Amino acid sequence: MLERFSRPARDAVKRARDLAAADGAGTVEAEHILLALTQQADRPTARALDDLGMSEAAVRSALAEELTDALQLVGVAVTVAPRPPSRPGRSTPRWGQSAKLALKRAVQVAIDRGHKRIDDRHLLLALGQAEAGVVPRVLRMLDVTPSDIDAALG
After folding, report:
1. pLDDT digits (tens, 9 = 90+) for 35-51
2. Which of 40, 52, 68, 96 could make an S-S bridge to 27, C-beta 3.0–4.6 Å?
3. What is the pLDDT of residues 67-95, one digit of tens each?
4. Domains of the chain
């Protein structure tokens, strides 16, 4: 599937996997893709995210708040503890369901728009289309709609 992805889109996907590994996650999820997109400062996608108030810091903060809310909802006490450092030699994270769905949706977004290549903008639009999961909850926390994303990307 990645052969149809542009260089910036492939870079974002690779960065998402690196972020998941650095976090010690066993799987790459949609939130890792979102964070990766915020880190591509030279790309229109990162600028659009920033214009929407979704800088890397804002997204990380919303992700932490979303995790706290989710844990409290199921009765897990939340304490602040430093994240353990990632261990060298840890295996590469597998692709989680939310990331797989985001990548498939990105392909469909490109097809729907008549584009042959999948760009990082298609990734962001696909993330905005998710109806359930961490990323949609984070978008709601940040008061960002799929229409806002579409408009910010021009």
Report:
1. 999 998 888 899 999 99
2. 96
3. 887 777 777 776 655 555 555 555 789 99
4. 2-80+89-153 (1.10.1780.10)
